Amino acid sequence: MKSKITLKDIAKELDVSTSTVSKALNDSHEISKETKERIKAYAKYYNYKPNTLALKLRSQKTSVIGVIIPEIVHHFFSTVLRGIEEFANSKGYNVMVCLSNGSLEKEQLSMDLLLEGSVDGILASVTHQTQQKKDYSHIQQLVDDKFPIVLFDNVVDDVRCDTLTINDEGGAFKATEYLIEKGCRRVALLAIPDFVKIGSLRKKGYLKALNKHAIEPDDDLIVVVEPNDNIHQKISTLFEDSNNYPDGIIASNGEIYASTAMQIAKDKGLSIPEDLSIITFTDSLISQYSSPPMTALVQHGFEMGKQAVELLINRIENTTSEVEYQRKVLSTNLKIRKSTR
Known about the structure:
Elements: H1 7-14, H2 18-25, H3 33-45, H4 52-57, E1 64-69, H5 75-90, E2 94-99, H6 104-116, E3 121-124, H7 128-133, H8 137-144, E4 149-152, E5 162-166, H9 168-181, E6 187-191, H10 197-212, E7 222-224, H11 231-236, E8 248-251, H12 255-267, E9 277-281, H13 285-289, E10 295-298, H14 301-317, E11 327-330, E12 333-335
Parallel strand pairs: 1-2, 1-3, 3-4, 4-5, 5-11, 6-7, 6-8, 8-9, 9-10
Antiparallel strand pairs: 10-12
């Protein structure tokens, strides 16, 4: 049995773009007869079945919006969902939510499920695995079919569609500079892998702040936490040398990492914030009720959800003219609490 192939596979094999493959399979007049025949023959041989549901939905309105998020227990995504649902409901739309659980395959299946359920458009935060494998064919196919889709938070630059993110670089710069201005000189970064866009941007902002204040970056102070890592064990590497403990930590991957670092530091006899200052990305009850309460970079998830669904509804309802794709960026702010000097 021949294995299932994607638009991207066909494009790579025939040395054309995924857009060309999609148009050829849809019999577009923009593609030459010879190219169409070659692509269709290859697709037929490998039993490729184009997603006709997406095309069908363009002429049918259901007033339902699909949302795909990596996880629901994360405070940030729960606030994003509140913003999405509140604004969508005010405009007469209902919301259907799917979890990708950080899996590329589950993300692809979720898109298929939402299309089968007849949604008018999709909001998606792509998984880390999707970015690691750089497989965006399922997203590109929707764009090629002119199906409304907006990416938020975790987005990709290789697909031309509406996106909404926070200023990850600026936020990390702001947090790092704040610690430096409070007297920290060994600021550590609990980092997200660089293949994740928000990870690379936050690391860039961190390094930019160090450079501005003439502090030489120390690789030992940058701890990259992978999804399957033992969090406690990985963060503990910052505290192996009692003569070189960090005096500041930016937890760019969230409150669980920040609270873990705080507990390890206390176990080592350090005082927060006298010996170690900690800032976390994301502001929730964990930050507010930890001991001491944590200074947090507020990402405004509710506003992101509201603006993301507004972008999508505009894309759904504007059928009379071509609208330029928008890439919106939201600013962040620091909420100062007692975990910093």
